[in-house]
Amino acid sequence: MATPVFHLPSNLAPSEASPEWMNKGDNAWQMVAATLVGLQSVPGLVILYGSIVKKKWAVNSAFMALYAFAAVLVCWVGWGYQMSFGKKLVHFWGRPDVALDQKFLLGQAFAGMFPTATMVFFQFCFAAITLILIAGALLGRMNFHAWMLFVPLWLTFSYTIGAFSLWCPDGFLYKAGVMDYSGGYVIHLSSGIAGFTAAYWVGPRLTKDRERFPPNNIILMLAGAGLLWMGWTGFNGGDPYFANIDASLAVINTHVCAATSLLVWLFLDILFFGKPSVIGAVQGMITGLVCITPAAGLVQGWAAIIMGVMSGSIPWYTMMVLHKNIKFLMQVDDTMAVFHTHAVAGSLGGILTGFFAEPRLNHLFFGDSPKYIGLAYGLQTGRTSAGFRQMGLQLGGILFIVTVNVVMTSLICLLIRLIVPLRLSDEDMQVGDDAIHGEEAYALWGDGERFENSKHNSVFDVEEFPSTMPKTGRGEVQMT
User: What is the rounded average pLDDT for all residues in the chain?
Assistant: First the structure.
């Protein structure tokens, strides 16, 4: 009797354009996820930055983000992707090489069931948003020509080191077992530390801009923040590299943590400052999204709630209380307070990942290796030493990323300073967009000063705690 012949439907049958190793669903989701991450930057952070700054800086702030998005892509396919995910040069860095040849781009990616072209685009969107987050610390005074040099240099000599070390299968921290599900270290801790370091070298805004820096459009700011929040579905949901159950868990954990963090921050603002600050709510949203990122698909939903409570309170405390009482933090003009919202929240998320990471979820994401276990489950199952080892690895990853970014960002700024000034002249800062670009955002009168009597129009721009409370209110006028 002849063996029956089975034929796949034409839409599922392998072909030259749809090889056997490719899963169409995974490839489709990965491209959608990449696009969602891209939308966080363009237009998300373009709108957020352009709206949350003083009117005279709207064009410059938005364009710093747009320029970085374009510049990173060209550098990424030119050499950045291979330095981050290609062949090993040293234990923490890949060899520079192009990612443009069709044979390379149409082959299977190093992970997942989709072509390398999809992976290149997905990882580009992560690299781009990292540079754009750094820009947040430098708004309102960095020389645009210096920024044009900073973007390719920092991508090449800082971002690629973190990405290769933590995410590439040949990276030494990846092999050691440091857990960074979707960029709490590679993206957020890096951008927070690099932004703060660069802000130190660039110098501050004009005194009057630091004292009063009212947003020019809070409604548009919320639109940009909304794109950032919804885009995080792709940010964390795309990192399993499969359209699987772990991706679904990562998405719901992401939004639960962000919502919890927003509410906690909002309640703290009401409790200590008397009013529900809209900008404060956006800050809480961001710290929640950042905190859950290294843990998104590795922790249970109840842990995401706890992480949201902590991300809405600990960065709030460092920003609203410690910031004003630590002289060095006050001296560095971190415009969008990325140190608190990204460095502090990213470190917090990495540490909590080491505590709450659940063994079965670790298995879904990392595979068969038994070395990944959160301390809470290590204590519960008698694997205490493995749990403490994981916590040690998480802290070691923080130390590595902080060191690399302080050193490399400082060297890059010092190099650029030899070529062009890092900071705009006082005359140009007095004028803003028109002096830098010859363009202005709005054909309207004024520079937002009509809002300066408001005590709730920027991050630290709120009166001190009531007289019955200790004088530990909001300090420098900065925004997130």
Answer: 91
